[in-house]
Structure formats: C-alpha cells, structure tokens
Amino acid sequence: VGDSRVYRFRDGSLAPLTHDHSFVNELESATGYISADTRAAYGHILTRHIGRTNEVGKPDLTHHEGQSGDYYLICTDGLTDVLGDEEIAATFLDVRGHQEICTRLVRDAWFAGAKDNITAVVVALEEDP
Fold it and tell me: Fewest C-beta in 10 Å: which of 20, 68, 75, 79?
C-alpha cells in the first residue's frame, strides 16, 4: 500500500517485489509512457495509502521464497525518487553488512537532493547455524 517499496537483492541482481500505488504509476502502466511534466505534477497522488482515513484499500500480498544470502530492502520514496535501481544495486555490490548498506543508501539519497523523508531497512537472510 502506498509508494514505499520492497526489493530483493540476490546473486548480484536487484529485483523490485512491489509497485507503487500512485496515480503516475498506474497511468504509466496503462499507457506505457508518462511525461516528466505529468510525473512532476501528479507524482504525489497515491491511489492506496495508510494515513488519515480509516479507508486503506486492499493491500497487495505476495509470497517470496527467501534464500540464504538474500537481502531485502524496504524503503520510502525519499530514497527511490533520487536513486535509481542501478545505484541501489551498486550499493549492495560495493558495501557489506546490512547496517552499512542502509547508511550508504540514506547518505547517497540525502546528497542527491531528496525532497521527502528517507527511510531504509535492510534484512539479510543467513543460514541457520
């Protein structure tokens, strides 16, 4: 629900596991294109959200099998508005440890000029001892 995202980083590849519930994302999905002007003007409009009203809308629920060595990134649009998937994936390749990855992503988003709150949580799956 909303425009925070979940990604999985596995075997050197970043894969989005969610999609934004926003007007511009739904318009782009329907038409295959959206102009930068439209994105700028309507990018803040959510089609599903958690917030001021009791009406949330139906959340998307999926199941993904995790593997040892997987990383999962949960992040807000303050991060993804300014860092592309390639930049996020490069951070996973360059930095070791989930805390260090979070620190670098938030720092990079800050220096890239994020205009919204920046939140990142990374969960690492490890084998049982």
Answer: 68
CA distance 93 to 71: 11
Chain centroid, CA 57 distance in Å:
20
Interval 11-55: pLDDT, tens: 999 999 988 777 887 888 888 898 989 888 888 888 777 776 666
> What are the helix (H) ranges across 1-129?
23-31, 36-42, 77-80, 85-94, 98-111
60 Rama class: left (phi>0) / alpha (psi -120 to 50) / beta = beta
Cα 32 to Cα 34: distance, rounded to the nearest angstrom: 7
